[in-house]
Known about the structure:
mainly alpha, Arc Repressor Mutant, subunit A, 3% strand
Amino acid sequence: MTVKMHVNGDLGADVEELVLRALSHRERRNILKIIESSEDGVVYSGILGDTGLSTGRLNYHLKELEGFIERNEQRKYRLTALGKKAVRLMNNIREDVEESYEDYTTAARANRKAFIQRHLNRAFYVGAVLFLLCPLATTYFLWNNVELWWIVGTAWLFCLLLIYFMDRVRKKSPRYLMGFIDWLEWRMYGEGSNSRLTSMFPGSRLVVGLLIGAALGAILGKVGAGILLGLFLGTAMEI
Length: 239
C-alpha cells in the first residue's frame, strides 16, 4: 500500500509539473481552449487560423502539447484526459473571481515589472562599463599622437551616443526590449525545453548573444558594436 501511494505521489508530481508548464504560455492556453471548444475536434488549419500564429510557431506549441492533445483518424486535434484536466484547471481559476483580486494582480504585475527593470538596469550598467572600455583604450594608445586625436574623439562620441540610446530604451520602453529578449530566447531555447542542457553550460546564453551580435555587426560592417550589443542582450537573457 505504501509503495502504491509513493508511485501515485510521483505520478501526481509529474502531472502537476507538466500541466503547469503547458499552461505557462498564453498561446498554448489559447490552443487548448480552441480545441476544447469543438466536440468533433479541430483540424490544423482551423487552429492556425484561429490563433494567427505562423506555422513554425504553431508546430512548436503543438509539439510542446504532446500528451495534452492527440489526432484522431480524421486528422483532427482533440484533448486527451490530461488536456481536459488542464482546461478544467484554467476554468476553475476563472471561477469566483472577485473585484478584490484586482489589488493582488496589480501587486503581482508591479513586482514582475520591478524584477525585470532591476535586472535590465544591471545589464545596462554592465554593458555601459564595457562600452566605455573601447574609448578608454583608444585614448590610452593614441594620447601621444595628436594627429589621431580625431579617432579618440570619434570613439568617445560613438560610445557615449550608444550608451545614451541604450539608456533611453531602458527607461522609456523596457517592455519592448524585454519582449524582444523573450522572443530571442524562445527562438534559441524553446522556453526551457532544453533547460537541463543549458544549465550544464553556465553563460551559454551570453555566448550565443555574442555570436549573434558579432554576426549582425559583420553584416553591417560594425563588428565591435555588434559584439557589444550581443553582450548586452546575452547578459539580459542570462540574469
